[in-house]
Design goal:
Keywords: DNA-binding, Transcription, Transcription regulation. The protein is α+β, with helices and mostly antiparallel strands. The chain is about 65% helix and about 15% strand. The protein contains five helices and three strands; from the N terminus they run ααβααββα. It has a three-stranded antiparallel beta sheet with strand order 1-3-2. About 15% of the residues are buried.
Length: about 100
C-alpha cells in the first residue's frame, strides 16, 4: 500500500459520525469497549466493526486485559487532526450564519 492509499484509508475511517464520536471519547484517554458501548448506544458487534476500521487506519490501538479490550488513540497527531477538523467545521458554520 502506498502513502496516498493509506491517507485515503484514514479519511475514509474519519468519514462516519460514530467513528468520530469514538475518537472524540478516546481523546481523554484509554477506554474499555464496555464503556464505549454504554456511551454510543450501539451494539458491541456494530461498535467492534467501527473499531476495526479505526484500527486498520492506524488511528487507534487495542490492549487486551483479561476478557476486556481497551482502546486508545495511537498518536497525538490524531488528536491534532481532530482539533483541526473541529476548527474547520466551526469556521465553515460561522460563515453560513
Amino acid at each position: 500500500m502506498n502513502n496516498i492509499d493509506f491517507q485515503a484509508r484514514i479519511f475514509k475511517a474519519l468519514g462516519h459520525p460514530l467513528r468520530l464520536k469514538i475518537l472524540k471519547k478516546l481523546v481523554s484517554g484509554e477506554l474499555c469497549v464496555c464503556k464505549l458501548v454504554d456511551d454510543t448506544e450501539f451494539t458491541q458487534a456494530n461498535l467492534s466493526q467501527h473499531l476495526k476500521i479505526l484500527s486498520n487506519a492506524g488511528l487507534i490501538v487495542k490492549r487486551k486485559e483479561g476478557n476486556y479490550s481497551h482502546y486508545r488513540i495511537s498518536d497525538d497527531k490524531t488528536i491534532d487532526l481532530l482539533a483541526h477538523c473541529e476548527d474547520i467545521a466551526a469556521n465553515y458554520i460561522k460563515k453560513l450564519l
